[in-house]
Amino acid sequence: MTIAKELSGRAKAMLRAVAAGRGELSGGREPDLYVDGLPCCDQMVTHDLVRAGLLRARRAVGLDERSDAELTDAGRAAIA
Q1: Which domain of life is it from (predicted)?
Q2: What domain range is 34 assigned to?
């Protein structure tokens, strides 16, 4: 099964928001996603997307900082 088929509608929407330049990730081992400056409602999905290598921060940041989020090649393929 491909990753795209395993993703929920919410996960795909989160990836699309990041692809549109609307996402930021907090620093830390388990980053939180912010969309349009607001915390995303499902941080467990955020953690899963980061661990799966679909989503990452554009730059390294500290725990109290945020970085623009970006999709990896696999993340772009998952919503293509």
Answers
A1: Bacteria
A2: 3-79
